[in-house]
Design a protein that fits this description.
Length: 238
């Protein structure tokens, strides 16, 4: 299956407009969003942009109800009252209400999760560290990745708000072993990178984030992942 990945959004509604266009052109069979929908440099008072971005996400969810969504740390800080860098107290209620609206737009059984899985490919915001899984699930769950992922997706703040969790991990800098590197490919955002690239069993794709002055850090293209062959490529709207 060809999966279009919408990486870290950070108040860029055009990502959803462009993703809609690419999906309508048949560039992919399904989409996954790695979220971090709110917050960007010096935009904490631009409540209208928060609304516009969430409305674009909600419209995408309605148009493509099979799209999967994976929480980022910036999304969860509004649900867990954590003052993450970029957190906007003035937008907090708006974000909470719009996240609920996004939840309601998704069909039953399609929940926003920390980790999503298609074939043997994991999609999550930061990455799934082997030590994190081994430390927090039973040995039998560890051996069965579906059970392990299901268990982790039930965790709450106390187990998830740390640097080793799937919402915070930065495998681009941390050299710890990833979960089942020979069996599972991982698609992650969270850490801005200059280009989409693979190292080990991790494909990093946060290529839409910017510097404070608005200059792009990365190539600003959408990754497409073949979940059967593990091939990947980037595409843009023409």
């Amino acid at each position: 299956m060809r999966v279009l990945v919408i990486p870290d959004v950070h108040l860029k509604p055009y990502l959803f407009y462009q993703a809609l266009e690419l999906m309508e052109k048949g560039e992919a069979d399904q989409a996954v969003c790695l979220m971090d929908i709110p917050d960007d440099w010096d935009r904490e008072y631009d409540i209208g942009l928060y609304v516009q971005t969430y409305d674009a996400a909600i419209e995408f969810a309605k148009r493509y109800p099979d799209a999967l969504w994976a929480y980022g740390n910036h999304d969860l800080c509004y649900l867990w009252n954590e003052r993450e860098s970029g957190y906007s107290p003035g937008a907090a209620r708006t974000v909470q209400e719009k996240l609920l609206e996004l939840h309601r737009a998704l069909p039953e059984g399609n929940e926003i999760r920390y980790i999503q899985k298609i074939d043997n490919v994991l999609f999550c915001h930061g990455g799934v560290l082997d030590y994190f899984v081994k430390s927090l699930v039973s040995p039998s769950e560890y051996k069965n990745e579906n059970k392990a992922i299901r268990k982790i997706n039930e965790f709450h703040h106390d187990l998830m708000w740390n640097d080793m969790s799937p919402i915070w991990l930065r495998p681009q800098y941390e050299r710890g072993k990833m979960y089942k590197p020979r069996k599972l490919l991982q698609i992650v955002g969270h850490t801005p990178v200059e280009k989409i690239y693979r190292e080990g069993n991790v494909i990093s794709c946060d290529v839409f984030s910017t510097y404070r002055d608005g200059r792009p850090i990365g190539t600003q293209e959408f990754p497409v992942i073949d979940t059967e062959t593990w091939e990947f490529w980037g595409i843009r709207c023409e």
